[in-house]
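Q: Two folds, back to back.
A: First:
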Amino acid sequence: MKNKGLKKIMVLLLTLFVVFSLAACGSPKQSETGSSSGQAQTGGSGGNAGEIAFVPPGMVSPFYAGTISGAKPTAEKLGYKFTVLSPERESDFAGQVKIVEDLVTRKVKGIALCAINADAIAAAVRKANEANIPVVVFNSLTELQNCEVKAYVGYDQRAGGRKVADYVNKVKNGKAKVAIIEGLPGYHTTERKGGFEEQIKSYPGIQVVAFQPGDWEREKSMNAATNMLQAHPEIEVFYGLSDEMALGAAQACKAAGRNDILTIGIDGNPNALEAIKNGELTATLYVYPDVIGAKAIEALDKILKGETVDKMIVTDSIIADKSNVDQFLK
């Protein structure tokens, strides 16, 4: 009988221990949750100024984490509840539209977004216009049509493409055969590729011999670069219109035993900078993503306060290679 009573006491004590342990652990925070329509983060303990939303086209590229690293502390310093929502893939323009429409329904104070597809997102922006919710577009300086965007924040991507062309001309002494890995059709691909092609008209020894889409993804870009190398073994330069695509090209070159090929991207992502330092990537156009994110939130804050902002807020860009990469590594 004594043994049975002792067992009952031990079971009761064990049960109480488990209950109190679970209570101490608590439930998952909102910032760690996601949904089928996107990936969510919520920050800030204050939020007295209301909720503002930040909507990247996806989180595949570390570039957008860089914009958030500038936007989030800026929003919290200004007293906003800061929410990040994005589709799971940068090709999901319908998912991005739904996110913006849901934010309008939630009556957030303002929205900063980077559009996947300009035509698709314009309809969602019009709904924000009707609800008197201001919209700022970041990482683009091309105006959306048939809707009202209060400000555009970003670097001149066409000028960025020209800087890449100048760099290739300098490093290759005015003579090179180039392959371009394109992103999804739209503003970013048009500007980054267009600027490069415009500038090489000044350099008759620089020729584009091939181009294929990589859709902003590393694996697709590695396959595209492999295909182009097989068809054009004379390729001397891969220009990826984003760092992830340039890193895919670098992997393809390594697999083919081609350490003679220059690989250059655009964004200045931390993994690209590390790859440059380690000799795995030649260069990138560093575009200060944290500055872009911070300035987008600052513009949204001024608009909400009734202050005047410039319609086009242009940020800087610079080529980063092994000669100066250490100053960009954090």
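A: Second:
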Amino acid sequence: MKKSNVALGIICTLISILFVYAAAAKLLDYYNFQFGLSESPFIAPFAALLTWGVPASELLIAVCLAIPRLRLAGLCASFILMSLFTLYIAAMLVFGSEIPCSCGGVLEEMSWRAHIVFNSGFVALSAWGIYLERKKRRTSANLPAFT
């Protein structure tokens, strides 16, 4: 097995673990998650939709990462979602707003700056995974067909 395939598997596994854990933590502590979203100055109007939408998206991304044909879509969705989370935290810090944490579980214990670093790491992992998956698809598309 090529090193890039191993790296791609590790990346997808790490992202999947993060999203399944985060979604489960949010759903298990649903009322606190909903309250945190409703207290956010930027997203309060969308709290009802996001309370279900965010964990559902996280779980859907984890499923996509487990299915080879959907892996690229899952990596792209992970890149977008983690980028949005990171930009949201950065905007809240820049504008000095009180930020209610609705991350769930152990992630709630991190400082906001640590959150940005952590999220940026997963944005980078997603980007690397996209690169590896596209490279893998180009390579397999150029292989001769055997009959």
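Q: And?
A: The chain has one domain: 3-139.
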